[in-house]
Hints:
The protein is α/β, with parallel strands linked by helices.
Amino acid sequence: MRSARPCRISSSDTLTDAFDRPGFGAALHPVIAKTVDTAVAGCKTRFRRVEEAHLADGAQDLAMIHIEVSILSGRDAATKRELSAAVLEVARAHVAPVPGLTVHTTVDVRDLDRDCYEKHEVVHPA
């Protein structure tokens, strides 16, 4: 079975202590699996701290979290909107307030071409 739910999360380095990345990943995977009717085992999330970014007018009191979720093609727009909203809710629950900082959080749900996606998994015995 081919399945894909890779997620890429980019966040401002000013959120290093405020963004609970392990908690977010743990909460995110079941939400994705439920929303697109798939298995948690297929979910993978990669985090990247952004040291340099120019947000809005360049003010130093801004930070960002951008979440890109890739799912196999074939889901309708309503399902993708539901997934975007659910992912945003999970993200908001895993970011502690930082006094004086405005955090912009965005979610982009993308299609992976089902006809071209391949996966290989190998389990090595202990």
